[in-house]
C-alpha cells in the first residue's frame, strides 16, 4: 500500500484544547483516502474520521514533509490513451486535460506520492509506461 502520514495540531472540537492529530493519505484499490485520528489529552475525546477530504493546508504539509512525487510517462506513449486515463482518474473536463498532459510530459506534474502512484497505476493499466517517483 502507498501512503503518507502526517502529525498536526488542531483544536479539540469539544473542549478547545490543543491536541495532536494524525492523518494518513493512502491509495486503496485505486482510490485516495484521507483518514484522521484525534485524541484529546484534556477531555478524553477520541475520534477517528475515515474517508474525509484532505484539506489543502494539510496537503501542503504532506508535500513539505515527505517531498513531492513526480509522474513521468514514456514519451512514446499514445497521447490519446494517456489523456483519457488522466481525464478519467482526475475527473477533469476535456478542456483541462491537455494542459495537465503537457505538464506530465514536461516532467512538471507533481503531487503527493499516493496521488501520483494512483495516476501511474491507471496509466500502466491502460498500457502506458508510467512511473511515480520522489523528485
Ligand atoms: Zn478535548
What do these coordinates show?
With about 140 residues, the chain is α+β, with helices and mostly antiparallel strands. The protein has 4 helices and 7 strands; from the N terminus they run ββββαβααβαβ. The chain has 2 domains: about 1-65, no CATH class; about 70-135, Ribosomal Protein L30, Chain: A (2-Layer Sandwich). The strands form 2 sheets. Strands 1-2-3-4 form a 4-stranded antiparallel β-sheet. A 3-stranded antiparallel β-sheet has the order 6-5-7, with helices on one face. The longest helix has 13 residues, at about 115-125. The chain binds zinc ion. Zinc ion binds next to loops.
CATH hierarchy: architecture of the largest domain: 2-Layer Sandwich
Largest sheet: 4 strands, antiparallel
Point out poorly predicted stretches.
none
CATH class of the largest domain: Alpha Beta
What fraction of residues sit in β-strands?
25-35%
Strand order of the largest sheet: 1-2-3-4
N-C termini distance? 20 Å
Small molecules bound:
zinc ion
Number of helices, where a helix is a run of at least 4 consecutive DSSP H or I residues: 4
CATH topology of the largest domain: Ribosomal Protein L30, Chain: A
Give a topology summary:
Blueprint: E1 2-11, E2 18-28, E3 31-39, E4 46-49, H1 56-66, E5 69-73, H2 79-90, H3 94-105, E6 110-111, H4 113-125, E7 130-134
Antiparallel strand pairs: 1-2, 2-3, 3-4, 5-6, 5-7
Helix pairs in contact: 2-3, 2-4
